[in-house]
Every structure is written in C-alpha cells, then in structure tokens.
Write a structure and sequence with these properties.
Layout lengths: L1 E6 L4 H14 L4 E4 L3 H10 L11 H20 L3 E6 L2 E3 L3 H13 L6 E3 L6 E5 L3 E2 L5 E4 L9 E5 H11 L6 H6 L8 E5 L3 E3 L26 H19 L5 E5 L9
Helix pairs in contact: 3-5
C-alpha cells in the first residue's frame, strides 16, 4: 500500500498536521503537490476533460485533478493499492490496526475498488451485513451517495474505473466517486469511520484554513454547491429504492475520532 497526501505548497500548516499524524501511525508516505491555478490552466490546454467546461471553482478543479493525477500514477506505475489523503484529515486512535487489518484482508483476496475511510456525519445507506475488521468496526458496501474525498483506499482497478468516470464528468471529485451509479463499482464504507475532515469535527478542531472553501462562498446557479444540495434528494430516492431490500439500511456513519491518535 502506498500513501499519498495531497497538499498545496503554500499550506505548510496542513503539511505539519499530516506529518505528525502519519509519522505516529508509523507508515511511510509521499507528499503529492496539489495542483494550483497555474497547473490547472496548463492542463486545460492539453487535456480535453468536461471538468474544464463545468462550473467547479478553480480550487475544486485543482483538487479534482490532483486526485485524477494520483489515479493515473497508480495505474502507470503498477501500484496495487493506494491510500489517498487530503491534508485536513484526522485519524482515530485505532486507525493503524484498522488499516493493517484491511491490508490483511486484501492480501487474502478481498476484492474492492474503493474503501471510504471517512465520514461527513451524513445519513447514508450501507449493507447491514459487513466484514468485521475489529470488534466494533465493519466494512460495508456503500449503496447511496456519501460526499467527501478526504480519505480513501483505492485499488489499481478502482483507479481505472475512476479515470473513466472522471473523463466523462464535470462534477467535483467526491461527487464523481461517491454518487451516481454505485452498483458499477465495488465501493465500501468503514463504519465507524477512522477518519474525519476538520470541517466536520464538533470538538477538537484544528481550525485548519480551507483553501477551497473560500472559493465556495458564493452560491451561483449550476455551481457545485447546487450539485451538492441535490445530493440529499438523490439520497432520499436511493433510500426509497432500497427499503425493500432486507439487508440494507439507512445509517448515520459515526466517526471513532475523539482526541486523535
């Protein structure tokens, strides 16, 4: 498993935050320099992607292209599995044991495309039956939208699928990954989630400044905020469609984060 931390060159406070956490976990990791406006502009001249014609902000385009670039790297370099992290993530105390347990399942043939390791504390639909990773944490198929791309494990095949999906979409990266046709991919959710982004914490926030958030302040028709506003309504539809399936249920994904690792 290779670990990538997406971080803008100017966000040194966020890099320090992630360095301290992952070093305490004891993993080797690689910083991936997030793409800024200049790189986005350059890529827009060489790549024909719907993203460049959509309504995402410059920051969201940079974030999306950063994830996209990591997926390409995984495929091109033949990396089996990658843990992709944005730089405002918090880990719970038992994150190391959960990640190790997940790696063991994968080494024994567990098939997946993406494992979502974070929560936005929203109500979502997952399979009731799951694979136990610990006494209190399970691995469940994700059956409804769950926004956020702050922490996820992705396989090489998952990267291929996301590259294909991304190449046909103009939406923000988390909407590309975790909404729409989830049946075409093997996407799992860790429950409770071992990771949570700073913005969702009810207590213990680091107050890490959101680089992208400043560009999302303005609500404009057709913007990604409108897309996100529609997500709960799609979630209601998903829920109604799954009421008849006995082994699925509406769950509010908790975070096991309390006071850090």
């Amino acid at each position: 498993m290779k670990i990538f931390v997406i971080n803008l060159d100017k966000s040194t406070d966020r890099l320090s935050h992630m360095t301290a956490q992952i070093d305490r976990l004891g993993y080797a990791w690689e910083r991936f320099s997030a793409l800024g406006p200049a790189q986005v502009e350059e890529m827009s001249r060489t790549l024909d992607l719907p993203l460049f014609r959509g309504t995402c902000s410059a920051g969201e385009k940079g974030a999306a292209l950063s994830h996209y670039s990591i997926w390409k790297k995984v495929v091109e370099e033949g990396i089996d599995d990658a843990l992709v992290l944005e730089d405002d993530v918090h880990f719970c105390r038992d994150a190391r044991s959960l990640i190790d347990s997940l790696n063991e399942k994968i080494s024994r043939g567990f098939r997946y495309d993406i494992v979502k390791m974070e929560t936005s504390l929203a109500g979502i639909i997952i399979d009731r039956k799951g694979l136990n990773l610990s006494a209190r944490t399970g691995l469940h198929r994700l059956r409804s939208n769950h926004t956020g791309a702050g922490a996820y494990l992705i396989s090489r095949e998952g990267c291929r699928k996301m590259i294909e999906r991304f190449s046909a979409s103009d939406r923000a990266v988390d909407l590309v990954m975790f909404s729409g046709d989830l049946e075409a991919t093997h996407i799992y959710q860790l429950h409770p989630a071992p990771c949570i982004q700073d913005v969702w914490l009810k207590s213990g926030k680091k107050g890490i400044a959101s680089v992208i958030g400043e560009e999302r302040a303005e609500w404009r028709p057709g913007s990604v905020w409108v897309q996100r506003a529609k997500v709960p309504f799609r979630g209601v539809y998903d829920f109604l469609q799954t009421l008849r399936v006995w082994n699925r249920g509406l769950v509010k994904i908790r975070s096991c984060y309390k006071d850090g690792i």
